[in-house]
TrEMBL record:
MF terms in GO: metal ion binding
Organism: Arabidopsis suecica
Name of the protein in its database record: HMA domain-containing protein
Domain HMA: 2-71
Taxonomic path: Eukaryota, Viridiplantae, Streptophyta, Embryophyta, Tracheophyta
Top-rank taxon: Eukaryota
PANTHER family: HEAVY METAL-ASSOCIATED ISOPRENYLATED PLANT PROTEIN 47
Length: 122
């Protein structure tokens, strides 16, 4: 079960943000960490099987005071199955055949006007 946590940092300083990111990144099960919010004071952690309580305690101990704002399950987007309508009807579609084309033989017939015209009919 993938989870998304939004954690509010109480101290808005570069040092606190950097330390909070370092602590969150090494936590078990974390797949992504990002800073969000108007003042970059919210830490968004996404992971699979992350122990939320342990992460919050580690952040409070090593970075600064934090508060868990939201904890939600990330659901995979469901792909709708659509029936595909053919773009052409059977009469318009080319016929696909696995047969090898047969060679066609033609017999050359001389023109009845004689060899002076040089016209050959195939």
């Amino acid at each position: 079960m993938k989870q998304k946590m939004r954690i509010k940092l109480s101290v808005n300083s570069e040092k606190c943000r950097k330390k909070a990111m370092q602590v969150a990144v090494v936590a078990d099960g974390v797949t992504s960490v990002a800073m969000e919010g108007e003042f970059q004071d919210e830490l968004v952690v996404v992971g699979d099987g992350v122990d939320t309580a342990s992460l919050i305690m580690a952040l409070r101990k090593k970075a600064c005071h934090v508060t868990l704002e939201t904890l939600e399950e990330v659901k995979k987007p469901q792909v709708e199955e659509k029936s595909v309508t053919p773009h052409c009807c059977i009469a318009q579609c080319p016929v696909v055949s696995n047969e090898q084309p047969r060679p066609e033989f033609y017999r050359i017939v001389h023109d009845s006007y004689g060899p002076t015209t040089g016209c050959l009919v195939m």
